[in-house]
Amino acid sequence: MQSEPSVLVLEDLDHALPLVSDAQEQVQEEGNNSANKTQLLRDLLRSVRQQAARVLLVATARNRQALNRELLTAPGTHTFDKVLEIQPPSMVRGHGLVVVVVVVVVVVEWAVSWCC
Q1: H or E stretch including 88?
Q2: What's the CA gap between 35 and 69, in Å, rounded?
Q3: How far lies 45's CA from each of 38, 52, 98, in Å?
Q4: SS3 at position 7
Q5: Which of 2, 4, 5, 39 is most buried by its number of CB atoms within 10 A?
Q6: DSSP run (H or E) holding 1
Q7: Residue 21: per-residue pLDDT
Q8: According to the model, what pLDDT value does residue 28 have?
Q9: Residue 94, CB half-sphere, CA atoms under 13 Å: how many?
């Protein structure tokens, strides 16, 4: 059975697996610490990749430094093949994007109400 291409999006990964200091890690209760969660995620992703080779993994975070180091630097593992840092748009450009989205939404709503 051949699987369809899929995209797996993990939003705000820095909130789910935050960067913690060694002191914070030791204080957290067993089974709920960041290292265990990170290893669980890596194991799940490895399993997904083995079962379905046509999966694109996309994750978002505030910045690279906010992520648990094990996701980016664990020896012998490649959780992410490439890390892209995308800067937010300037105020002028951001305003232009909002205007375009609002116009598209208005046009789509008008088209749906006109034809249906």
Answers
A1: none
A2: 10
A3: 11, 10, 34
A4: strand
A5: 39
A6: none
A7: 62
A8: 53
A9: 5
